[in-house]
Specification:
By secondary structure, the protein is an alpha+beta fold. Helices cover 13% and strands 32% of the residues. The protein folds into 2 domains: 83 residues, no CATH class; 90 residues, no CATH class. The protein is built from 4 helices and 11 strands; from the N terminus they run ββαβββααβββββαβ. The strands form 2 sheets. It has a 6-stranded mixed beta barrel.
């Protein structure tokens, strides 16, 4: 069965901020799926909302960030992420966080059948023939606001599906909200 999840940060996870303010991140333009790695310089950042118990993932300018060495050293996690994302380094004195920038933009929402106003009580319908490959993190191209999704398939082994692998490894810091699931 295929499922589509919206990816957000958990409330208890940390938030990072640029040391030099927002202009540091915005000098690279919009994070709309356009590749950035070839022009990227690590942005110096600090904790905006530190947490006592550190999670594996945090957020920076609404994008997920790998914080923990546990995830960064996980060969399978990195392989799953680089299938559809760029891993952009950030700079901090005590750690080396990596921002996850999805470069896969998809147009797979059946807007005629969906009722979408805000993410709280929407009814999402996805066109199965336009869904991205399972296990990849993507951005929805139809919307102005950043909607980052992952398509998961319970028939795949966890090593091929980031959503399943995240839960199998017990990682923390991300929240997955079910938007849609197939009948089969």
């Amino acid at each position: 069965m295929k499922q589509v999840f919206d990816i957000r940060k958990e409330e208890k996870s940390a938030t990072l901020a640029a040391v030099l303010g927002d202009q540091a991140i915005f000098k690279y333009g919009s994070f709309d799926g356009t590749p950035k790695l070839s022009v990227w310089d690590p942005i110096e950042c600090c904790f905006y909302k530190p947490r006592k118990n550190m999670t594996d993932f945090a957020s920076f300018s609404m994008l997920p960030v790998l914080l923990s060495n546990r995830v960064q050293s996980d060969i399978i996690s990195r392989a799953l992420l680089v299938k559809s994302c760029e891993l952009l380094p950030l700079s901090m004195p005590t750690m080396a966080p990596i921002m996850i920038h999805s470069t896969k933009v998809v147009d797979c929402v059946d807007e005629a059948s969906s009722r979408i106003k805000c993410l709280s009580d929407d009814v999402w319908v996805f066109s199965q023939d336009r869904l991205p490959p399972c296990g990849q993190i993507c951005r929805l191209g139809q919307f102005r606001t950043a909607v980052t999704i992952i398509v998961s398939d319970s028939n795949l082994p966890p090593e091929e599906d980031f959503y399943q692998w995240y839960h199998k490894q017990g990682y923390t810091g991300l929240r997955f909200k079910l938007l849609w699931q197939s009948d089969t």
